[in-house]
């Protein structure tokens, strides 16, 4: 006898924007643009979130269409990419942003570790095989951002100073992904989707960083961070 607990749960016919984009291998920004252009239909919940028909989303994929290749399939790892970004450039960026002259020595290494952790988890988010894996990686990236913001606040940096430093490192991150796309021969559509996904992910991380920097010194739990920073879509 098949019980409720042993039955295989049928996939939901309705998807969030993140589930739908992961299903067909495009960024949420790309799917949002297609929706706004009328290429795929969605309905909006009373809470302001878009929901997509699974069948309609799958219908966007012509026969034989290739999704963006995962970074791991191109021989890349988050650790390797982060090393290429941080090792040659981190000190110069910190100096340009005016951080190096003001940081207390004991806080330098924790800031570096948290920055590397956030970048590594962002790459895991971009390379996730499922929406659940992507969300778990983003939550960890947000936790690192909150820890980073707490140290920056304790050092007395203004929100403007903190955001300036964040944006400088984000530029390095996006440049490295663009360079990777060229080296690995991604076509224009694949490269654009990779950079759109990365830009949207870093925007989400920046929102978490700013909210933590402007809020209390207490570090919120991971679930609270995810709830606050989830976009209405």
Structure write-up:
- This protein has 233 residues and is mainly α.
- It has two domains: 14-58, Orthogonal Bundle (Multidrug-efflux Transporter Regulator, Chain: A, Domain 2); 72-229, Globin-like, CATH 1.10.490.
- It contains nine helices and three strands.
- The chain has a three-stranded antiparallel sheet.
- The protein is globular, with a radius of gyration of 19 Å.
- The model is unreliable at 1-8 and 216-232 (pLDDT under 50).
List keywords for this structure.
Multidrug-efflux Transporter Regulator, Chain: A, Domain 2, single chain, 9 helices, disordered C terminus, Globin-like, disordered N terminus, 233 residues
Task: Provide a compact summary of the structure.
The chain is mostly helical and 233 residues long. It has nine helices and three strands.
Provide the fold topology:
Elements: E1 14-15, H1 17-24, H2 28-36, E2 42-44, E3 50-53, H3 54-58, H4 78-96, H5 105-126, H6 131-154, H7 159-183, H8 188-214, H9 222-229
Antiparallel strand pairs: 1-3, 2-3
Helix pairs in contact: 1-2, 4-5, 4-7, 5-6, 5-8, 6-8, 6-9, 7-8
Shape: globular
Report mean pLDDT, rounded to a whole number.
Answer: 76
How would you classify the helix and strand content by structural class?
mainly alpha
Quaternary arrangement of the chains shown? single chain
Radius of gyration: 19 Å
Major beta sheet summary: 3 strands, antiparallel
Give the strand line-up of the largest sheet.
1-3-2
The helix fraction, in percent, is 55-70%
Q: How many domain regions? A: 2
Q: Strand tally, please?
A: 3
**Kindly, what is the distance between the CA atoms of the first and last residues, rounded to a whole number of angstroms?**
41 Å
What count of helical segments does DSSP give?
9
The CATH class designation of the largest domain is Mainly Alpha
H/E element order: EHHEEHHHHHHH
According to CATH, the fold-level topology of the largest domain is Globin-like
CATH architecture annotation name of the largest domain: Orthogonal Bundle
Strand content: under 5%
Contiguous runs where pLDDT drops below 50 for at least 5 residues: 1-8, 216-232
């Amino acid at each position: 006898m098949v019980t409720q607990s042993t039955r295989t749960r049928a996939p939901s016919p309705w998807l969030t924007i993140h589930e739908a984009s992961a299903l067909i291998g495009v960024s949420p920004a790309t799917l949002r643009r297609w929706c706004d252009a009328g290429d795929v239909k969605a309905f909006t919940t009373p809470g302001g979130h878009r929901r997509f028909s699974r069948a309609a989303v799958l219908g966007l994929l012509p026969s034989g269409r290739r999704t963006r290749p995962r970074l791991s399939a191109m021989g890349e790892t988050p650790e390797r990419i982060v090393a290429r970004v941080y090792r040659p450039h981190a000190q110069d960026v910190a100096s340009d942003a005016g951080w190096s002259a003001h940081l207390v020595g004991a806080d330098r290494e924790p800031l570096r570790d948290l920055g590397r952790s956030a970048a590594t988890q962002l790459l895991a988010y971009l390379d996730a095989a499922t929406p659940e894996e992507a969300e778990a990686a983003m939550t960890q990236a947000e936790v690192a951002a909150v820890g980073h913001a707490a140290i920056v606040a304790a050092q007395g940096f203004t929100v403007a100073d903190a955001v300036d430093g964040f944006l400088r490192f984000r530029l390095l991150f996006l440049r490295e992904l663009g360079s990777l796309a060229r080296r690995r021969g991604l076509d224009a559509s694949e490269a654009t989707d990779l950079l759109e996904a990365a830009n949207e992910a870093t925007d989400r991380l920046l929102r978490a960083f700013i909210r933590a920097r402007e809020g209390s010194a207490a570090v919120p739990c991971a679930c609270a961070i995810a709830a606050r920073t989830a976009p209405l879509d």
